[in-house]
Amino acid sequence: MSILEVSHVSKTFGSKNVLQDVNLTFEDNKIYGLLGRNGAGKSTLLNIMTNRIFADTGQVKIDSEDISDNDAKLGLIFLMSEVNLYPNGNTLNQIIADTELIYGNFDHQLAQRLAEKFDLDLTSKFGKLSTGYNSIFKLILALSVPVKFVLLDEPVLGLDANHREMFYSELIQSYSDHPRAFIISTHLIEEVANLISDVIVLDEGRIMLNSPVEDVLAKTHSVVGPQKDVMAYTKGLNVIGHDNMGTIRVNYVYGDLDDRQLPDTVQLSNFDLQKLFIFLTNQFEGSRHDENQ
Ligand SMILES: Nc1ncnc2c1ncn2[C@@H]1O[C@H](COP(=O)(O)OP(=O)(O)OP(=O)(O)O)[C@@H](O)[C@H]1O
User: Ligand 1: distance of its center to the CA of 44 in Å?
Assistant: First the structure.
């Protein structure tokens, strides 16, 4: 198994601290979701992880070897992003041939099958592709290169709902055929929630959450019932958000519940990753500072 390690990575642009002492470990048999609000530093991190830009401090290593200026290790990582690295005048077939020169062992059969499935003509010129097909082509490359770490930065940009579904199912198929690491940076949390095994939340350049999805969801509790009972039950717990529906109150708790007695009037259930993300990254008005607690 290969391990990709990000150690103490920091990056500033001008006076802005975009990444602050980021430490992460990726195994090559998991699908990671990299979540964060706009400007959180996700693309910067992915670019540093592929040596496209340099960290101010810190290191990125694969199996304990620094990746910078290390072609053997860089050949194990592929980043798909909205940045267009390919000449507009080249055909898709030419770009595939060039990609194979860099990464070797390109899965032509898969690329051909996917091109047919998505109705993409590989003799087209790259510069003539629509936004959606530009993404589709780059996704086909990402699934067909023989790397251990596939980094996808906003992979479904411009894809319609049908094409997004098709892509997610192909990703799962490809992963089960050849387990490797996928690191998916996206704002479409609901769409990837069932796909990812681990979730990483980046907030203002710092890692706020880094855990298996299963563990994270097990710590989410929505506590529903009459206002005063809910407030009493959740006193002292980590309430990260709330809703009021008339006299009914929902408090959203993140963390382990202790053995306190649940009143008959109050019900507990879990809530989803998207809601958790919204609460944790403070997109919910008043979520953090609940004056009633
Ligand atoms: N080359 C650059 N020069 C100056 N500032 C930059 C540069 N690249 C990124 N930034 C800034 O760094 C911050 C993080 O940007 P980044 O693109 O990494 O965030 P992100 O999480 O990918 O955001 P989004 O979800 O909006 O794509 C932003 O404030 C951005 O303006």
Answer: 6
What is the sign, positive or negative, of the torsion defined by CA atoms of 43, 44, 49, 50? Answer: positive
Q: What is the ipTM of this complex?
A: 0.97
Inter-residue contact 157 to 82 (CB < 8 Å):
yes
List, for residues 171-228, the tens digit of each pLDDT value: 999 999 999 999 999 999 999 999 999 999 999 999 999 999 999 999 999 999 999 9
Measured between alpha carbons, how far is 208 from 210 in angstroms, rounded to an integer? 7
Nearest CA to ligand 1 atom 3: 13
Distance CA 279, CA 288 (A): 8
Torsion sign across C-alpha atoms 177, 183, 184, 190: positive
DSSP for 32-49 reads EEEE--TTSSHHHHHHHH
Whether 41 is in the pocket of ligand 1, judged by its Cβ within 6 Å, is: yes
Q: In which region does residue 189 sit, left (phi positive, over 0), alpha (psi from -120 to 50) or beta (all else)? A: alpha
Give residue 200 CA to ligand 1 midpoint distance, Å: 17
CA of 39 to the centre of ligand 1 (A): 5
Q: Is ligand 1 within 6 A of the CB of residue 13?
A: yes
pTM, two decimal places: 0.92
